[in-house]
Amino acid sequence: MSQGKIVAIIVLLGAVLIGVYNSTYIVPQAETAIVLRFGNPQEVIEEPGLKFKVPIADQVTTFDRRVRNFEAPVAELPTRDQKYIVVSAFVRYRIKDSLTFFRVGRTFENAENQIQSVLLATLRSVIGNVPLTDTLTPKRADIMRQVKDELTRQAAEPYGIEIVDVRFKRVDLPVQNSEAVFNSMRTQRAQEAAGIRAEGAREAREKRAEADKERVVLVADARRQAEILRGEGDAEAISIYNEAFGRDPAFFDFYRSLQAMQQGLAGDTTTYVGPPAGDFFRFFGNQGDAQAQ
Length: 293
Fold this sequence. Notes:
Radius of gyration: 55 Å
Number of helices: 7
Largest sheet: 4 strands, antiparallel
Number of strands: 9
CATH superfamily of the domain at 68-173: Band 7 domain
Distance between the termini: 187 Å
Low-confidence stretches: 287-293
Strand content: 15-25%
CATH topology of the domain at 68-173: Tetrahydropterin Synthase, Chain A
CATH architecture of the domain at 68-173: 2-Layer Sandwich
Shape: rod-shaped
């Protein structure tokens, strides 16, 4: 084989290799490829692997389909109650429609510029319609959901991307407003505490008055029952006395005289000086006198 033929074969093999190289491309697992023929999109390739194209006429542009993070610049925004807060937010997004993204956005930088513009305008609108307390409570999740929905409508759908999530990294008060807001919160909490104490004192007075009323009713009822029982007991005692004394009036007279003497001469140091005369001594005379009496 002559040297000229060898050179021709080498050139031919080189041309074949170059043609094969220019007619094949690889689509990675996490990327989407768009085949452009003379600058016009012809096909969107989402399946990974080795693919073929027309040399020279076709060009391949790839886009990463994985979730990307975009951190928006810190912004100072007013709330509905005219309190300013410092908000730092980030957005997680990914390409959903590669062809739309290529036609509208072309690059991630352009898409993120649009996301930033819409995000700041949406944050200003949404936070401007809520009080400061909502940004510091679980209601913050509703605020982030509203921002995500608006960002999807204005920035994601036109660019062929999907907003996966919107989060607040930090929500703080400006340094110059912190002390004033804290003082206002202290005053508000003090007013709430005073109201709670007043309500508790009112309920205590009501319960105390109710208890006093019940006590008065119970005591009055107990006294009424006691008076009834005492009256019934006195009536029964009088009945028994009357029955007993009616059987022996002389003994009753003697018994009452002894009671009168016991009460009149009470004490160990009481001494009676005088004649043994009078009603007290009529039962202590001689037998004849007693019988006469």
